[in-house]
Design a protein that fits this description.
single chain, about 850 residues, alpha+beta, 25 helices, binds ligand ANZ, binds zinc ion
Length: about 850
């Protein structure tokens, strides 16, 4: 038969869907709801196949749940603020707004081409003033609830570009664009008080049983709850006049207190700062430390360095032991108290430091059973379990017992206390950028910093901005920031910082419930749809985005907007699509159409014939020229081919290798499926023909395969095992194909079973390759759309592996047949027999006296 022209037919089906408005979210009903969401894209230019795998998974879930009878919400939008738009403005002179909305238009078209069942009426971009107006409203609510504040904070400052840089824009201590050595500056910054929810965010993780374990663990570590102890060390030596008498350290290993051999403070600790006033060398050292940057990773990687202040800290339990006090680059001001006692034997950083400055290494914890004489610390600190020794009154105690003892003593003596610290910091949301949500605050010389009035929202971005001068265009706009104070009317200035784009993505999922509301969310709609039942996205967002969204949900709950804590009940993190890369001998990246494969298995450049270096399975990136544009695939093979291919072979959480062979394989399957349906269609009974009384063996056999396929694929889709669902469907298709080899159409029962099989396979592929699904459904004679069909339900009797059929009698008269597993227990056979409709009828009102079961033969119900 004729080939199925996918690209052409797909266009037709998409038009039918559009005309019948089938993707519209249903009105409120009694049906259960299901909210499926994929992390919304950044409109960078074009959709990339890597994205489409993610959206295909979401689409399969959305279509499957819809068939299961759920009201499904499946929206799409754009995470549209951010640096790349400004970079494009600087590089190409396009306005960020124009650049962004043009990209959105292109990418929307590409997503529509993939046939995703998305409710486009709910679309929005975070740079739409309607969206950020509501975000500004939320900001003001946060302010009222004391969830926003302003304080000085360190930022990376690029002295050439005159701009603040994000940590990831600092590369080896230099500005990513200017190449200038980055400085640390203190600037007033806005913060969200996420730490108020630290405990709550931690505890909530336990309820997220449909999240990957590794993501929960990453969040847990990020929040980083530590139960420890604050200990005050008396200072001696030449202390600056304004310095306190004690050095407060935070430790989680107070059991190792007798192993302390030095103390260290952060370069920006107040004590370091005041010492530096008198000491130019220390000033230089501090400046050097600050060049490492503010990111924890950078600090972790840097070589451990210190500067001896000359001060001494007196050991709290050993009066005659005086510890040197260093300023050290590995101590962070932002954690604990910004000061530590160092115990080199049991902490690796301390050990590296001690080796460098020739400090004492004194082990105080020894593994149980080890010999104290021969137990030595080499280049690795001992951080394992054991008991305490070399520690006077602590000797012999376990680590936990020793901690308990020290904490109690410290509290009794008033030289410290038990403390819980979190690694989690408040969230700095200020960005000195143009293309972001303006912070709705006003600086008045008389009234201070006050909120813009709600009725004046949104504080809209000006469009006439210039990117010629370095720095924040909002700041040097001639008029925008000049306003009158809403309180006193005097001349005032708008805040020119905009919000971190992570703010935009922290509540968009809630906005989708009522995207046009003139409040951030409409309560009834949010109550109807939230939480998101299935969220799908990249593991790169496992920490910040998800944590911020969880924070926003809690904050919005406390402000009365929402009635839940956890925004995402189910989370799935998908793997990437990877692709070979090709590099010429001179090191240039080549695109796949510049190379060919020789017969003896080499890869060569088409133009020159010279050999090419192949990089296997690398992440797709424009610079390596190994990206695949979904539009090319859609035009050549059809969207279904791309959809089928991306979910085949690899488990969805793993990476999948993009190969031409794989794409062709998917295309061939779709051809095979449509051929199976088309070739059989004319010989099938009419749709809706009642089932024959009984089935011959080959027909029965086909029916079993059909019902088993339904059962198996359902289970796989429920568990998001798309590749396994596809494998089951392949097997089922082979079964149908071999059944079609026989003379099935002459036998009405077999023909009936064939229709059933073809309907089932069409329904099963529907969520994955929806265009081909509609095509087959129509070829099976239906005028209705497949997308509106309920999901098929397998008959239990046909699922039984080794089934037999036995007669059921009532008072000795044959009344029914029972199909049941050959090795069913007597009780099971009895129960199944009594459930039969015809047995009920035969019994009427008479009570059952006895049931006689002859296994594998007969059941007699005696009334
Ligand atoms: C003494 C000690 C001995 C420590 C030992 C560890 C091992 P967690 O558990 O992650 O909370 N620390 C405290 N404040 C710090 C800061 N601002 N910058 C860098 N390090 C800091 O980490 C707590 C431990 O990290 C503390 O316990 C402290 O070192 C260090 F064998 O105190 B410990
Ligand atoms: Zn004022």
């Amino acid at each position: 038969s004729e080939r199925y022209n996918a690209p052409e037919r797909e266009k037709y089906w998409r038009q039918v869907w559009r005309e019948q408005d089938v993707f519209r979210t249903p009105e409120m009903s009694d049906r259960p709801k299901y909210y499926v969401l994929e992390m919304f894209p950044y409109p960078s230019g074009r959709i990339h196949v890597g994205h489409t795998r993610n959206y295909t998974m979401g689409d399969v879930v959305a279509r499957y749940k819809r068939a299961q009878g759920y009201d499904v919400l499946h929206p799409m939008g754009w995470d549209a603020f951010g640096m790349p738009a400004e970079n494009a403005a600087m590089a190409k002179g396009v306005h960020p707004k124009e650049w962004t909305y043009e990209n959105i238009a292109t990418m929307r078209g590409q997503l529509q081409e993939m046939g995703f069942a998305l409710d486009w009426d709910r679309e929005f971009a975070t740079c739409d003033p309607e969206y950020y107006a509501q975000q500004q409203k939320l900001f003001l609510d946060f302010l009222k609830h004391d969830l926003v504040y302003r304080r000085m904070a360190r930022v990376n400052w690029d002295p050439v570009d005159q701009t603040v840089l994000a940590n990831e824009q600092v590369i080896d201590g230099r500005g990513w664009r200017s190449g200038a050595v980055v400085e640390q500056r203190e600037l007033p910054q806005w913060f969200f008080r996420i730490t108020r929810y630290a405990d709550d965010l931690l505890e909530g993780l336990d309820t997220l049983d449909r999240w990957p374990e590794k993501v929960r663990l990453m969040q847990k570590n990020w929040i980083g709850k530590s139960e420890g102890c604050l200990i005050k060390f008396k200072l001696s030596g030449d202390r600056p006049a304004d310095a306190p008498e004690t050095l407060d350290v935070f430790t989680t290993r107070h059991d190792t207190i007798f192993g302390a051999t030095f103390c260290a403070i952060a370069p920006n600790h107040p004590l370091a700062q005041s010492l530096a006033e008198q000491d130019p060398n220390l000033r230089d050292f501090i400046a050097e430390c600050q060049r490492i940057g503010t990111s924890e990773e950078a600090i972790e990687r840097a070589e451990k360095k210190g500067y001896d202040t000359g001060l001494k800290a007196i050991h709290p339990f050993k009066r005659n032991s005086r510890l040197r006090v260093f300023v050290a680059n590995f101590v962070l001001m932002e954690y604990g108290t910004g000061a530590i006692f160092g115990c080199p034997a049991h902490d690796q950083r301390d050990l590296d430091f001690a080796r460098k400055y020739r400090l004492n290494v004194k082990p105080v914890v020894i593994p149980d059973g080890a010999d104290p004489e021969s137990f030595k610390i080499g280049s690795e600190a001992y951080t394992g379990p054991g008991h305490i020794y070399n520690s006077e009154f602590l000797d012999g105690l376990s680590v936990d017992e020793a901690k308990e003892k020290i904490a109690t003593l410290v509290e009794e003596r008033g030289i410290g206390e038990r403390q819980v610290k979190f690694r989690l910091r408040d969230w700095g949301v200020s960005r000195q950028r143009y293309w972001g949500c303006p912070i709705p605050m006003i600086h008045c010389p008389t009234c201070g910093i006050i909120p813009e009035r709600e009725e004046n929202l949104p504080v809209q971005l000006p469009e006439d901005v210039s990117f010629e001068k370095p720095g924040n265009p909002l700041d040097h706009h001639p008029t925008w920031k000049h306003v009158h104070c809403p309180e006193c009317g005097s001349e005032a200035e708008r805040e020119t910082d905009t919000l971190d784009t992570f703010v935009d993505s922290s509540w968009y999922f809630a906005r989708f419930c009522s995207p046009r509301a003139d409040t951030p969310v409409e309560k009834t709609e949010a109550d109807r749809w939230l939480p998101v039942d299935q969220y799908i996205g990249g593991v790169e967002h496992a920490i910040l985005h998800l944590l911020y969204a969880r924070f926003f949900t809690r904050a919005m709950r406390d402000m009365g907007y929402l009635d839940l804590e956890e925004p995402f009940a189910g989370l799935f993190t998908q793997g990437m699509i990877v692709h070979d890369t090709y590099r010429s001998q001179s090191g240039e990246w080549l695109s796949p159409d510049q190379v060919r494969f020789t017969e003896d298995g080499k890869t060569v450049e088409i133009d020159t014939g010279s050999p090419v270096t192949v990089g296997h399975a690398e992440k797709m990136s424009k610079s390596k020229r190994n990206t695949v544009d979904p539009t090319d695939i859609v035009e050549r093979f059809g969207a279904d081919t791309a959809r089928w291919f991306m979910l085949s072979d690899s488990p969805p959480e793993r990476d999948v290798q993009w190969t031409d062979a794989g794409v062709e394989g998917a295309w061939r399957f779709i051809q095979k499926l449509t051929r199976l349906v088309t070739d059989a269609a004319d010989a099938l009974p009419e749709q809706g023909t009642p089932a024959p009384e009984s089935f011959s063996n080959p027909a029965e056999d086909l029916r079993r395969a059909s019902h088993r396929a339904v059962k198996a694929v359902t289970g796989d889709l429920e568990a998001l095992r798309f590749n396994r669902a596809i494998a089951q469907i392949h097997e089922f298709a082979n079964k149908i194909a071999s059944a079609q080899q026989s003379d099935w159409h002459d036998q009405p029962d077999f023909a009936w079973a064939m229709r059933e099989a073809l309907e089932f396979i069409t329904q099963l592929v529907g969520p994955i390759i929806p265009h081909a699904g509609e095509e087959c459904w129509a070829r099976l004679g239906y005028n209705s759309l497949l997308i509106n069909q309920p999901w098929p339900e397998p008959e239990d009797a046909l699922l039984i592996d080794d089934a037999i059929t036995i007669a059921v009698q009532v008072n000795g008269k044959r009344r029914a047949e029972l199909t049941i597993s050959r090795d069913a227990e007597k009780e099971e056979v009895e129960r199944a027999a009594l459930e039969l409709e015809s047995v009920h009828r035969a019994l009427g009102d008479r009570p059952v006296k006895r049931v006689i079961v002859v296994p594998q033969r007969i059941v007699n119900v005696v009334a």
